Amino acid sequence: MTAAIDPERILRDLAGLWRDLGQQDDPESRDGVLRACSMTLVVVADGGDDPAGIGETLAGLMRDHPSRAIVVRVHRESGAPLAARVLAQCWLPFGGRKQICCEQVEIDCAQQSLDGLAAVVLPLAAADLPVVLWLRNPDLAAAPELDALRMLATKVIIDSRDWQTPAAALDWLAASHTRAGDLAWTRLTPWRMLLAHAVDNPGVLGRIAGVAQARVTAGEPFGSSAWYLAAWLKHCLRRGECLVPVRLEASGAPPGAISGLSLRGSGLDASVLSAPEGGAAVRINAVETRSPLPALPDAALLREELAITGPDPVYEAVLPLAAKLAREAAG
Fold it and tell me: Predicted confidence band at 81 (pLDDT cuts at 50, 70, 90)?
């Protein structure tokens, strides 16, 4: 790869891109282009992934997390062409006249060339800024040829929902030497927020200590989301070395989909259940309310993950416990 794709040439192309964009600047007016970058976002995708979908996701991120995006499409067929091009993602803020633009580098390579990928990406990373690696394909995520690229990254993001074996995905994340993120965990934020808000009042919080059992219901076969929620409940209800039992039960939901959470104990019957007509039914003892339960697109999930630049104590505590639960269930 290094012989066919020269990072110095790509950097020259980026400089030329900004020269061309800069010609739009008018020193006598507010019109022009503003360059923005807060990180390097490296996306490793399968060659068959929809490029338009990836582009739309990146465009949706740039307003909140402007970055130098490096999209690597890995082609499985032998002798796949190697190529690289540069482009800009630009938008006009509401009420403004100066465009804000971010850089994007697109690289096509063959799977046999993966071992040289880090040597191309490293010179392209924006200096002194975080490097986030989004591995979209499970097979590529675990490829040993990407070890050097993973070590380069400040944070590695996957979606364990796409992995065939949840236990393998969670074990892989738990063993990661860099900070890890999982879109399957991020997708559970609405569920966790609904239950947390439901019990966050003095009349209910005083009864949490009396919870004797918690339950997660999901479609079979259970995915990583179910193990995450079971581990999260165990973590939240931990009393010293004592873990409150959490039952994981099958429901009529689609495979892997979450259908409900519940807490049972002395004077407390709390639950969040997906409603057939959409949204969620939130019940605290005899009082029931309805709340939205949105299905978040990748851009929204990544936006939440990219906002976590430091340690995430809750996820770091839940991940090894979820991995342990999934591994024990797999036998």
Answer: low
